[in-house]
Amino acid sequence: MIYARQIKNLGRELGIDEIRITTAEPFTEASTKMAEQERAELYLGTEHWQKRDFDCFCDVHSKLADAKSIVSACLCYLTDEKIDLTEPGRPHGLIARYTWRNHYLDLRKRLEKLALFLKKEYNASFCVYSNGPVAEKPIAERSGIGYYGKHSIIINQAYGSWVVLGEIIADIEIEPDSSLTMDCGNCQLCIDACPTGAIIGPYVLDRRRCIQALTNWYGVIPDAIARVWGNRLYGCTICQDVCPKNKTVKPFSPRTDLGYVGQSIPLRDILQIDDAAYRQRYPNNQITEGWIRFKAIKRNALLCLGHIKDRTTLPLLKEFAQCKDEVFSRTAQWAISNFRSG
């Protein structure tokens, strides 16, 4: 059995905010819950990860057959930057805070250095992931990195839910930590604050109504959801914004510029470039991952303009209102009609 202290100390030296260790047993309860939610049709039909085999997703042995331990880690992404970069006459759409930069890639690079130490010191075989093909939230929960909030996001004791998760799966036995005996108690601010009612009960999310999930999905957004969409180009963090555990987290100065996108993006730019130019302009970020359809981002931009109501954008909206793509045309028509409301 390898003691974890040296691993955790090196992790801190590498700039990893917290490391905890857990065993490699399958996360069978998580797999069962995912299957139940799929049967209840709480996923969007086109979500890339929904097509995964849940049993494999929740068993790290599917990635490393001889896995014995998981080094679970988190990195805080809360920075002290201005949230919206909109300028007069140049409306922007907001980007969710976690993807202003590629914090997943940043954490993975730090974990890779730690994994090389495990290889050198203990001859360990390993896999390193962040935002990868394993059940990161259940891993974080069992290791004690955090506990599930009622919004289904992991809450860390020091950094709230402003964290990205990552892990090293290794074939060596490392002293494991215990999970936390904590929960949200009677608080349900996230449930009450969700503008679309997507959190249908504690720890149960209807992704068909979740703006965060819908920003990745391509289709016509129902009117009731479109009306509360706001100027969100990618993602939504309302459930995190209202969480009491996040109120006391001290923001950092930015610690990486990997995959930098920024806090908001000019909407005209999004609507006037093609897929290739979009992916070239914002490389190495979640918003240009292969499974993200640029058409969904463009549709989001049209929704944003309908809320911002900058009349100088009406000619562009009218152009999209007449295009052959039904999702674009119906969304642009909705945006134009929204100029007349309120």
Which descriptor suits the 3D outline? Answer: globular
Structural class: alpha+beta
Largest sheet: 4 strands, antiparallel
Number of strands: 11
Unreliable stretches (pLDDT < 50, length at least 5) are none
Note the run of SSEs as H and E. HEHHEEHEHEEEHEEHHEHHEHHHHH
- The percent range for helix content is 25-40%
What is the rounded distance between the termini?
65 Å
Strand content: 5-15%
- Count the domains: 2
The gyration radius over C-alpha positions equals 21 Å
Tally of separate helices: 15
Strand order of the largest sheet: 1-2-7-4
Mean pLDDT: 96
Task: Describe this structure as you would to a colleague.
- By secondary structure, this protein is of the alpha+beta class.
- It folds into 2 domains: 146 residues, no CATH class; 151 residues, no CATH class.
- The protein has 15 helices and 11 strands.
- The chain has a 4-stranded antiparallel beta sheet, sandwiched between helices. A 3-stranded mixed beta sheet has the order 10-3-11.
- Strand 8 and strand 9 form a beta hairpin.
- Helix 13 packs parallel to helix 15.
- It is globular, with a radius of gyration of 21 Å.
- The N and C termini lie far apart (65 Å).
- The mean pLDDT is 96.
